[in-house]
Amino acid sequence: MLNKYFQFEKYHTDLKTEIIAGITTFIAGMYIIVVNPSILQEAGIPYNAALTGTVVLSAFLTIAMGLYAKNPILVAPGMGINAYFTYSIVIGMKADPYVALGAIFWSGVFFVVISILNIRTMIIKAIPKSVRTGGAVGIGLFIALIGFHNSGFIIAKNPFIGVGKFSSTTLIFLLGLFITIIMVRKKIKGALILSMILTTILAWPVGRLILTETRPIIHPQGIFASPDFSWFFKADLVSSLKYSFIPVMFSLLFVDMFDSITTFIGVAEASGLTDKEGEPRNMKESMIVDGLATLFAGLFGTSSGTAYIESAAGIEEGGRTGLTAVVTGLLFLPFLFVAPLAALVPPVATAPVLVLVGVFMASQLNALNWKDMAEAIPAFLTLVLIPLTYSLTQGIVYGLLSYTVIQLVSGKAKKIPLMLWIVDGFSIVMLIIEYGF
Known about the structure:
By secondary structure, the protein is mainly alpha-helical.
C-alpha cells in the first residue's frame, strides 16, 4: 500500500530509506521545538503555549506535505520570521501579540489564495535558471554557515566574522565533522543520522550539554510536560485588518513566500526532485500546504510556518517521497508530552551534518556558465547574499533585480517575462518597507 501510494520504485527508494531520511530530517530540524518558543516568549507568548503551537503546527503540516504534496519537506515555524514577528512587529511596533498573530493568519490566507490560483507557480517559472542555481548553492552555503555558527567555530568578530576560540564545543564539532566525512566517504548507510547520534554522545563527557550563543538550548527539566493550548484560536482577526497593519502583512507574505520558493527551488535543483519540465515537483500542492502552515500558525499561537532548508539533510540521506515528511511529522507528536527531551540534542550535534549538506548542494556550481556575465552575476549575488545577509529573501531579490538590469542594458527587455516584472516591482516595495524609506 505504501509502495503504491508513494511510488517507491519510480523514485528508486524503499521503506527503510524513507524512514531513515525522515528521522534524519527530524533530528536536523528538531531544534525549532525549543528555539522558537524561546524567541516567541519575548513577544509575550508563554513558553509552553508557544512550544505546543510549534509542535502541533510542525507535526500536522509536515504530514500534510507528505500525504498531499508528496514531497520530503519539513514544515515548521520559520527562523528569521519568528525574530521579525517578535523584535520588529511586537517589540519594535509595540503591537499586541494577539493582533500580530492575526496578521500572520491573514498573510496565510493570501498565501493560500495565490497558491490555489497558481500565481506562485507562475512566479517560480519566471525565476531565471541562473538565480535558481545560485539559490540552491546559496542555501547550501547558508546551511553550512549555520552549522559553523552553531558549533562556535565561526563567531561574530570585529570587524565582521572570524574563527571562535578553541573550546570543548569546537573540539566536539571537529571530531563530529571528521567522523561524518569518513562515513560519507565510505558511503555508510544512514551516515548523517549516525553522525548526529555520535556527536550527541560525544557532547556528554564534557559534563553538561553544549550551549551556543546563537541557539540557546534549554536543559532538560524532567521528562514529561503537559501541552498548553491556551493561545490556540486567540488571534485578533479583526484588529489585524487595520490600515496600519497592511505593510506588516505584506512583509510577512513576501518574506514567507520567497523563503519557501527559494527553499523548494534550491532543494529540488540540488536533489533532482523536479518534474518533466524541470520545475520543482508537485509545486502547487507544496505551496498550498506552505500557505496553510502560515494560516494555521496564526491560529495556533506561533509565527509563520514555512518549508525548512534542513529538509536537505533527509533528502541527502535518500528521502525521495512524501513518506519522509510523514515520518518527520509523526516524530514531532511525542514532544507534546516529552518536550524537555528535545534539549538532549545540542546544536553542535547537527552542525557537522549541516556543513556536509552544504558540500552536497554546492555541486550545482557546475551548472553555471561563469564566462557569461549575464548568468554569472545574478547567480553570484544570489548565492553570496543568502548566507552573508542571513536571508534567503535578500539573496533572491537582488539576484532577480540584477538579472533584470543586465537584460535591459543588453537590449533583451522582451525576453523578461511579465511575471518577473511584477515580482521585481514587489521586491522594490518590500525593500522600501524594510529600509524604512
